[in-house]
Amino acid sequence: MSASVHIRPAIEADAGAIAAMLARMGAELGDPCTSTEATIRAQGFGPGAHFSVLVAEADGAPVGFALYFPHFSTTRGRPGAYVQDIWTEPARRGAGLGVRLLAAVADRAAQDWGAAYLALGVHGHNAAAARFYQRLGFTAEDVQPMALTGGRFTALAGEAA
To answer: CATH number of the domain at 5-158, please?
Structure first.
């Protein structure tokens, strides 16, 4: 663990490593990730990319990442960044890499689209992550995340016609 860690924007060639880290994160959380190298490549790079990724690497190997995208809060009246996923190698935890990744996201988003805040969600059973975010000053908001997926999403989208 003595190698210094460099954080940089992901490039398309990182898609496989990002998918592998997402799979490891999902396994740790008990929430399997179905993103693949192909979906990461198609959705995260080129014109119309849906997200950005910062990769943390040591000795040329990925040891963590943060995946984020623009967010807008009508109550704040400002743009922000939503951090969808952040993960570091278990051996790197507790050494400040998560803080560095979040700081890098905040800096990039502020420069790229004038972000004024970070938003994220934490799995209810991941108490260690909740404590980490609270130490940084994140607070729980009175918003319950909900999702519409699969056939229900398709049916609702079909009602727009």
So the answer is: 3.40.630.30
